[in-house]
Amino acid sequence: MKDLLFRCSRLSDLMTGLIWLTENQKQLLAKMSEKDKLTEAQAIEYGKLLEKKNSKELSESVKNFLIDIYLEYHYGYREEVFTSSMKKGLLLESQAITLTQQVLGGLRLKNKARKQNEYIIGTCDVVLANHIEDVKVCENLKTFFKADLSKDYMWQGQGYMWLWGIPNYRLIYTLFPDPEEMILDQEKSLYFKFGCNEENPDYKRLCYQIRKNNEIIEKMPLDDRIKIFEFQLEEEKIEQIKSQHARAKEYLIHNFKI
Predict the structure, then answer these.
(1) Which of 25, 27, 150, 197 could disulfide-link to 21, CB 3.0 to 4.6 Å?
(2) pTM of the entire structure?
């Protein structure tokens, strides 16, 4: 396999079940390596640490992910997913960046450049002088309320910072009412579920609640419709990506002869 590049948006899939020495284990291994003689217990521990350090094992989750990579690489096969949440994000992407600008200040332009190195590839949302920003549109008030710094976005952010050489990252969640076309889609779906009977009281109640939920968001102050998480580039995580990339590449070559 000549070029194996993982998308930043899929780095979390690659890094699941990562086998890696902790900082304390690294220090312990270094101390043991300097000793002329080890006790039996120390020798066993030393062997376990070396085995872990040099491990080429991947979790079953990563192996399943690599099957997807192989099918796309070899056959061009991909299973595309397009949810209502993704649709909302695409429709309101520019508004989300504008809201971020209104609340945080400063000029923000949608980044269209894609960058890659020998390990990963990706396109972040916004590139500032000292920050990479990714701006997300939450599906509804509940998902916004529960939004947190997930493992998926943490790894994605590490990838973007590495590619652009910028050590600071902002994950920004925004909240907007659904566009009218999405509200009509929801009402249409209910219309058919209730036998095309617009007089059904449950149909009317649910349609009313859809509109009400969006009106609640519309009335919220702008400052309450944005949630920000910040973190920095971690060199150790970049080394982990490199190591996992090597394991993944070897697994693909060994199992799929590519």
Answers:
(1) 25
(2) 0.85
